[in-house]
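Bench log. Compound arrived from synthesis this morning; before running ITC I wanted a structural hypothesis for how coenzyme A sits in the protein. Inputs:
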Amino acid sequence: MSWQERYASKLTTAVQALRCVESGSRVYIHPGCAEPEVLAEALIERAPFVRDVEIVHLLTLGKAPYVQPEMAGHFRHNAMFIGANVREAVNSGRADYTPIYLSEVEGLFESGQMPLDVALIQVSPPDAHGFCSFGVGVDTTMTAARCARHVIAQVNDQMPRTYGDSFLHVDQIDAVVEVSRPLCELPREPITDLHRAIARNVASLIDDGATLQLGIGGIPDAVLLELENHKDLGIHTEMLSDNVIPLIESGVINGHRKTLHPRKAVLSFVLGTKPLFDFVHHNPIFEFHPVAYTNNPFIIAQNERMVAVNSTLQVDLTGQVCSDSIGTYLYSGFGGQVDFIRGARHSKGGKPIIAMPSTAKNGTISRIVPILSPGSGVVASRGSIHYVVTEFGIAYLHGKSIRERAEALIQIAHPKFRDELYAYCEKTNWLRRPARTDFSVAHQEAGPQPLDTVPAGPTQE
Ligand code: COA
């Protein structure tokens, strides 16, 4: 039988295909823009027939109907990265959150610690040789498909074909549900003046010839806009957004000086909109790999001049970084933040950067705090943080004492919160407030400015 005949024999409907989901099964869903929405939504029709089904995935963008209160007892979601669609369910106790480094998720499937019964994936139609492409997301899904007992594929002719380690043969699929529909999109965030001010400070740390990782959120996106005059940049990242397109088209990103996979933009998934999906389609610049590869710190470190830019929610005065929760409120996840901090700090000339606005909630609270809010989880420890950047400048923490860290972080906090940060340091005997300054007046007069005292921070040449 030819592969075409074998493929045809697997064609079915979503409802039919999902009959393999049984009580007690664990079901994996392809995340991000690759989410197989038809399959995810059809799970609901399976609900009356099953109990205690665990649904596991990273950030998805669809409706996630299985977390609705009426699904309790039938389905329970386990989030390895919390998106907006499941945040309320996680924080109301109807779903779980598993904190994990992105580079280690696939190990759970492979080792049998988290065996998968069913993988719901979305791929492109097969090529002449019977290979489907994972398209916009190889992420953890190629491994999930290799490990799951049943693989159900939503085959979508609107899924781009992408290159790299990003293919699955039709023989590795158990059931095929064909669709033709637009992919989920993550619309571009409006880039504010604040984001651009922070991004300018970040861009000042990026040298020509650097290889970049850009994490999730408004700031990493804004950084790309500040790089148009740079030269010979490269990409090694888990994710990319729409803003990368003009830099590749103009030749600013060309990968010429990359020391690993020169000329290639190495990534695992894209989070963006249709123009980005069209841009990666049959584009030989891009090389997609599983995150176990892109996010392996030992692989990342082989890129010289590796610059990792990630964002966070709260930083304490010793440099502890909380990125996945706001106090006890579980907000997002680890993603690849720590993987890339580790990789960049072991890269020759590398720079791990945490960038954030100095305040949150319309300027009413400081993100630089004396003590993390009760319940906050430390995602990146104070031993691993090198650069922290806000709109007020750059603090270099690596190898610095608690006193020096507190001083450097107060200098990049919003001026209206500096007094209270100093007051805390006086209580702990870390340092004394300088006599001269009324910070809030200084700020009103000068506006946000990058510090001219920014320590360059030694790089490992
Ligand atoms: N206290 C209270 N609320 C806070 C806060 C704090 N310290 N910090 C942020 N918030 C609020 C913001 O006001 C905002 O609320 P709003 O939506 O009502 O305006 C919300 O939390 C999101 O904050 P923001 O900084 O705008 O988020 P972002 O979209 O820029 O993303 C992270 C920032 C930290 C959530 C995101 O980068 C992340 O999840 N990082 C961890 C994982 C990671 O970096 N992975 C690498 C790539 S996968």
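What the model suggests: Residues 415-427 form the longest helix (13 residues). Residues 193-425 form a domain with the Glutaconate Coenzyme A-transferase fold (CATH 3.40.1080.20).
ITC booked for Thursday regardless.
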